[in-house]
């Protein structure tokens, strides 16, 4: 079994802390993922660096504000700005999260979970189709970490993602760390989640760190990737074949060299997983 | 429960003062083997407030330094409860903060704090405003002599003007340097502080009253260069054109002006 989507290789989340080093050192990073909202501005340092980095590296746009499952109408102004940014930097794809981040009254600025029901499925699917019409490309949606789930769930999360890709043709950003976090919090088997996703729809993988409180785990992106997530990542690549892999870091930023070393670790563990896949084929 | 009702209940939980949700909403949820519903909901509730407060700490770092952790936390919590975020980007969260400080605190306390908030917000506006096409000294050198008298200018889009009655600029500088503050001292005479972006760097400068009037005359009232010289003749006599050229050169060097095309 193999994904049909080409891989960009091993990338990093573009963060302002590292702009200057990226331009000065031209590090061996295959691509960068940018947080779309950080660049929906009209000028200044962020756009200056974005343009300079776009000349040297492939970019992917990753949003946090689409609120694809929200109770509000889709924000057409936001979508228009995404389109304009996409025209500027020509991203390989555009992603956001399977969640809602805006309520009926206010912006909530969090990646909130949805009940996995038929009602949610049709609500989200119709909005994904609208977004894809505007952006003129498949939307890539990421599974989020969660800390509660709805009693009303009629699907597992992976069943919901399967159904959504089937209904809309959207693609998936499989966050391996989020699967691990949610599996610990809700008591499901992480591999069952990953193994049951449609391989041909998985466009990208995310790796990140979290805070482990013992009884539960919180997705914080402020630590290196932990061993169980590395193991799950290897198992995922062995199953899927090469998939674009992105290392995220959003707080407690380490020296750039340390982040590059962690990306090298992903590269090396990924290579051995893919070798095993070849040998076992 | 319909999806929209469930989401409204979730939203009410996030915006509530207490991290404990109403029993009705909590009853629609499941926890995990070692994560109960109450703790799960508290994670979302706490993350909502702390994420917004983090943004305000970054955008109003001098105010945070002045007030200290506890007072700043109380003020920002009151702010986000009074004005929950309305824009998809957290970049705009602090837009009403200065106004809120004026509403929320007694006048003697609020005036210098709000002024500092306005100054810090001006930096955020200058930071990512459209660059425009500021006049350069080269542009001025190429300006044909017959065009000089009628030259009119606007402020470049990054330029912000803050009217200061207190030693706000000094307070901001001291806070940035993490040194001792003598905040909230009234100035002998109010001053305008300009904040703008030059290339990718934010800059600031306080103007003396005479220069403030001259700049306002050009960019707000719409004086052309010859009118500026005429106005300055009252105070500077024959030295008026020299003073006008000197200020204009300074403003252009700073990247403050765009040419206004009639």
UniProtKB/TrEMBL annotation, chain A:
InterPro entries: MbnB/TglH/ChrH (IPR007801). NCBIfam families: PRK05409.1. HAMAP family: UPF0276. Belongs to the UPF0276 family. This is UPF0276 protein E4167_08480. It comes from Pseudomonas veronii.
TrEMBL record, chain B:
It comes from Pseudomonas veronii. It holds the Pfam family DUF2063. Residues 6-101 form the Putative DNA-binding domain. This is DUF2063 domain-containing protein. Gene3D superfamilies: DUF2063 (1.10.150.690). InterPro entries: DUF2063, DUF2063_N_sf.
């Amino acid at each position: 079994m193999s994904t049909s989507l080409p891989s960009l290789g091993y990338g990093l989340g573009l963060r302002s802390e590292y702009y200057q080093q990226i331009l000065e050192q031209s590090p061996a990073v295959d691509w960068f993922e940018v947080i779309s909202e950080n660049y929906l501005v009209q000028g200044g340092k962020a756009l200056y660096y974005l343009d300079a980095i776009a000349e040297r590296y492939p970019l992917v746009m990753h949003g946090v504000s689409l609120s694809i499952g929200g109770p509000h109408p889709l924000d057409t102004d936001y979508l228009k700005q995404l389109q304009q940014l996409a025209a500027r930097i020509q991203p390989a794809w555009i992603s956001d999260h399977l969640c809602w981040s805006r309520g009926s009254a206010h912006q909530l600025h969090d990646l909130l979970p949805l009940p996995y029901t038929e009602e949610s499925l049709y609500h989200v699917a119709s909005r994904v189709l609208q977004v894809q019409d505007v952006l003129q490309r498949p939307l890539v949606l990421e599974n989020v970490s969660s800390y509660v789930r709805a009693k009303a769930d009629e699907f597992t999360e992976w069943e919901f993602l399967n159904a959504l890709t089937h209904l809309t043709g959207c693609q998936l950003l499989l966050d391996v760390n989020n699967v691990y976090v949610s599996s610990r919090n809700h008591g499901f088997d992480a591999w069952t989640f990953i193994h049951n996703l449609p391989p041909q729809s998985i466009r990208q993988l995310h790796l990140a760190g979290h805070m482990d409180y013992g009884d539960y785990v919180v997705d914080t992106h402020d630590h290196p990737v932990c061993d169980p997530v590395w193991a799950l990542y290897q198992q995922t690549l062995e199953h899927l074949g090469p998939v674009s892999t992105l290392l995220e870091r959003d707080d407690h930023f380490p020296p750039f060299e340390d982040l590059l070393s962690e990306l090298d670790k992903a590269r090396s563990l990924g290579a051995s997983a893919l070798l095993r896949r070849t040998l076992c084929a | 429960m319909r999806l929209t009702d469930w989401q409204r209940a979730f939203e009410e939980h996030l915006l509530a003062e207490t991290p404990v949700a109403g029993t009705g909403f909590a009853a629609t949820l499941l926890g995990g083997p070692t994560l109960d519903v109450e703790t799960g909901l508290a994670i979302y509730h706490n993350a909502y407030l702390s994420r917004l407060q983090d943004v305000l700490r970054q955008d109003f770092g001098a105010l945070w330094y002045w007030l200290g952790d506890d007072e700043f936390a109380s003020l920002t919590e009151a702010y986000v409860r009074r004005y929950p975020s309305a824009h998809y980007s957290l970049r705009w969260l602090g837009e009403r903060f200065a106004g809120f400080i004026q509403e929320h605190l007694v006048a003697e306390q609020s005036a210098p704090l709000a002024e500092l908030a306005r100054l810090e917000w001006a930096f955020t506006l200058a930071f990512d405003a459209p660059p425009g096409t500021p006049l350069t000294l080269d542009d001025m050198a190429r300006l044909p002599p017959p065009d000089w008298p009628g030259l009119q200018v606007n402020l470049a889009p990054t330029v912000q003007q803050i009217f200061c009655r207190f030693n706000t600029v000094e307070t901001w500088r001291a806070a940035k340097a993490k040194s001792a503050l003598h905040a909230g001292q009234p100035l002998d005479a109010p001053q305008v502080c300009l904040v703008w972006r030059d290339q990718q760097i934010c800059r600031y400068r306080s103007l003396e009253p005479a220069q403030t009037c001259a700049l306002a005359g050009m960019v707000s009232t719409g004086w052309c260069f010859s009118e500026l010289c005429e106005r300055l003749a009252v105070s500077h006599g024959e030295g008026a054109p020299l003073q006008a050229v000197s200020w204009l050169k300074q403003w252009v060097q700073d990247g403050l002006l765009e040419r206004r095309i009639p």
